[in-house]
Each structure stands twice: as structure tokens, then as C-alpha cells.
Write a structure and sequence with these properties.
Blueprint (H helix, E strand, L loop, with lengths): L4 E2 L10 H9 L11 H14 L3 E5 L2 H11 L6 E5 L3 H4 L4 H6 L2 E5 L8 H7 L10 E7 L12 H13 L4 E4 L3 H8 L3 H5 L4 E5 L10 E5 L1 H13 L8 H13 L4 H16 L4 E3 L8 E6 L5 H17 L2 E2 L1 E4 L2 E5 L6 H15 L3
Parallel strand pairs: 1-11, 3-4, 3-5, 5-6, 6-7
Antiparallel strand pairs: 2-8, 7-8, 9-10, 10-13, 12-13
Helix pairs in contact: 1-11, 2-11, 3-10, 6-7, 12-14, 13-14
The structure holds ligand TLP.
Ligand TLP binds next to helix 3.
Length: 352
Amino acid sequence: MHDIVDLRSDTLTLPTPEMREAMARAPVGDDVWEEDPTVKRLEALAAERLGKAAGLFVTSGTMGNLISVVSQTQTGQEVVLDLDSHIFNNEAAGAAVVGNLQMRPVKTARGFLAPDQVREALRAANIHVPPTGLICIENTHNRHGGTCCTPEEISAVAAVAHEASVPVHLDGARLFNAAIALERPARDFVRDVDSVTFCVSKGLGAPVGSVICGSTDLIARARRVRKMLGGGMRQAGIIAAAGIVALERMVDRLAEDHANARALAEGVSKLPGLSVDLASVQTNIVIFRVERGGTAAASAAATAELVAGCGARKVKIHAIGPTAIRCVTHKDIDAEDIGRTLDAFAEITRKW
Ligand code: TLP
């Protein structure tokens, strides 16, 4: 049980004592000169786990996605991606601003582009249209509530893209959550993608960082773009050391976060005024709706009341829309915290 239960995101995890120890002891060097042994170790470990030739340590998932997109496209091309994707909604339009790229968002059923949707979105060779430069997918899918797609679904999308010589990027910020939930090795999910970014700073608990993995050639181009964006860090082994602990020690325990999310979702489904699609709760994210009084305004007021009421009980939750709440479980949330959260929800909704 923790004093404050913080369900706003798994980015709020604090480094473990083992991470702090590893950070203090890490051998370091200037990583822009490619002389930081700890960064190199993390990059090699990440590449090995994902079955790719090389890795590149970057500051964040946002930077990893931007570098991956810019490294594989040319100005004026189009990027096809899901309408609810993080790259399209939550990355400050970096691909448009820095890459001069046009985004082509496609509405999907579960957050995952189907092969036919990719086929339809690919542009024909014609001087009027922007050439398709890249396909982006996201697994697990944040805005769809941590849903997972299978390695086979990803490979099917990649086959269509590659037939048209278009590369594929996977935003795998929470790739290891998908791997644990579907009980498949992480490398299976990325076998057919050209680039993948995953974060050590979310459920895996490291304080900072993400790793891009791909071919040696892609990572060489990505290194240049990282420098251009100001992401060349010097003695970055200090933070990469925590990333190594994250990859070596924190992956298997994600199953606990998934069990806690499931318990939370089942509890929420029994409360008046709250509704959750239990089938969408596959990993560590629970998105639920708030409804009261039959009008949008009353429901929005109830949502605000729930957030404030929880805050007063030291349970931090976050609204992702006027009547939608997202809760994310992580290593600093235990089963008792879930019980306390459900008690808070029950007390507040009892009056509705
Ligand atoms: N997501 C954050 C917020 O930006 C919404 C969160 O709290 O979930 N891809 C996906 C699928 C993500 O969920 C996130 C972060 C990122 C990329 C970006 O990672 P960071 O925050 O490291 O830039």
C-alpha cells in the first residue's frame, strides 16, 4: 500500500534501488563520440532482445518515434497511421513540423490498421498525390486502452507495405506489455517491421529513455537525426544503466500490472455510472466512461467530481476526455492500492 495511489500513467514510476545503484556505478564516456560503454550495452541488449542488428538510445518515446519517422521518409511524403495513434495525437505534430510530412490518419476498429486499409491508403504513382513514405503502427495501443495486436497481424500489414516498397515503424512504447499479455517473445512482434521504438521509462520503471532498434543502416541514419534534434547526450550511461536493469529485471513482473488492471476494470464495471469495455483491458490500461443524468454536461460534471473526489482521497486519476478516465497500473501500484481506488470510486458514485 502506498500513501499516494498514482494511476495517471506508468510514466510516473520511480526508479528502483537497484536502478539507482546501477546508475551510481555505471562506467560512462561521451556517447556522441560513441564511447559510452553503458549506453552501448543497453543498445546491444535491446537489439538482441528484439532480434534487430542495432539499437539507439534516445531521450523519450516521442523522440524515438520522430527520429524513426524522419530517418525513413522524405519531405512531402505521406505517413499512414491510425487516427487514435500517439504519433498523430500526442507528439506535437513533430513529424509534420520537422519532417515536412503529411499525416494520413485512418479510423480503425481496435487501433490497428488492417492489411486492406493499408492497401487502400497506399498512393498510386501520380504527380498530384503525396507518395506514401511510411506506415506506422502502435502496440500496445494507448488510446484504445492498452489493447494488443499479434505478431501475425503486424506481419500481415508489413507484407502489404513492403510489397509497395514502403517501410513500417512500430511505436512499441509498451511493446513488452503486449509480449507478456500474449505470452509471445517481443522479437516476434518486430520481425517484419523496419524500425521499432520501445520505452524503458514506462512500465519498466527506468527514469528516462527509449531505444530505437532496426538495421545497422537505419540506426546510422537515426544517429544523425538524433544529433540534429539535439538528442546527442554525453555521459548518458548514467541513465542507460537504469534502462539495462529495466530490461533485465522488470519485464516479467508486468503480468502483475495486468492483473491489477483487470481487477480494477472488473470493480469499475460493477459501479453505477461507470462503464468499461472489459474485453479491451488486455494489459495495464483501463479506460472507462462516466455517465450521470442522461446529458453530456451532467456526465462531464460527474467526471470532474470523480477526479477531484479521488484526489481528496490521495488517489490520482486523469480524465482523457470530458467523460472518459484513463487509469494505468505499474510497479508502484499494488493490489491494496486497487482496493483503495475502488473504495474511493464506490464512495463517490454512491451519491449519483
Ligand atoms: N504516452 C504518455 C502520454 O504522452 C499520453 C502516457 O502517459 O501514456 N507512444 C505511446 C504509445 C505512448 O503512450 C507514449 C507516451 C509515447 C509514445 C511517448 O513517450 P514519451 O512520453 O517517452 O515521449
